[in-house]
Structures are given as structure tokens and as C-alpha cells.
Known about the structure:
Shape: elongated
Structural class: alpha+beta
Radius of gyration: 33 Å
Helix content: 10-25%
Amino acid sequence: xxxxxxxxxxxxxxxxxxxxxxxxxxxxxxxxxxxxxxxxxxxxxxxxxxxxxxxxxxxxxxxxxxxxxxxxxxxxxxxxxxxxxxxxxxxxxxxxxxxxxxxxxxxxxxxxxxxxxxxxxxxxxxxxxxxxxxxxxxxxxxxxxxxxxxxx
Length: 152
């Protein structure tokens, strides 16, 4: 029994706050935090490796080399294509005006090459494409290259 002079005993302050607001959040242990960081780092490195190699495994890469304008209706684009020598390739080439609008477009067929035609065994071939343009162009680039038939 309690005397009138003593206040009634209540639950400790921590318990009443926990009941009202919920229990304190538990932090990760240092070991669990290191493990989580290690897993995230491994996943990030794996993703970067996949992005880097998936592009090179597609089988076809290209590089713009040069561009010239003959007149307001003709443009020439020089580029290199690297692929397996026995595979034919198609490349879409475009000419652009000063506002980056496409003023000329052409799909070029690149036939298979002999394995001994270049120092790298026929993998890289140089191409020059002449295309008609609707108006004067200020640049020319390769838009994309692919192996016909969906082969990789």
C-alpha cells in the first residue's frame, strides 16, 4: 500500500516512451554494415563489367574518321568498321545541318572481307560514303552498324 504522501509508482520513462512511440531503432552491427557495403560494391563492379563487355561482344563497332561537303547537295563520310571478317555488316550513316537536323541518310552494305586484307586480319575496314542531302550539311556521322539477320 502507498501512503498519501508518496506518489503512485509508474512505469519507467523509457518503457512508457517505447509504448507511445515504438521501440528504439536498432543499428546495424559494424560487421553487418561492412558486409552490406561489400555486397553493394561487388554488385556495382559486376554491373560495370557487364556494361563494358556487353557492348564489345555485340560483334560490330564503328568509328567516325572524317567528313567533307562537296556542295549543298552532296556529303562524304569516312568511317571504320570493326567486325568478324566473314560477316557482312550494314551501317546507317547520316548528314546533319547546323541545327543537328538530319538532311541526308543512307544505309551502307559492307561485304565480308578476306582475312589477309588488313593488318588485323580483315576485322577493320575503312569506308567512304557519298550521300545526297536536302540542304547544306555541316557534319556527317555513323548512326549505327549491325549484322543483317539479327546475328551477333
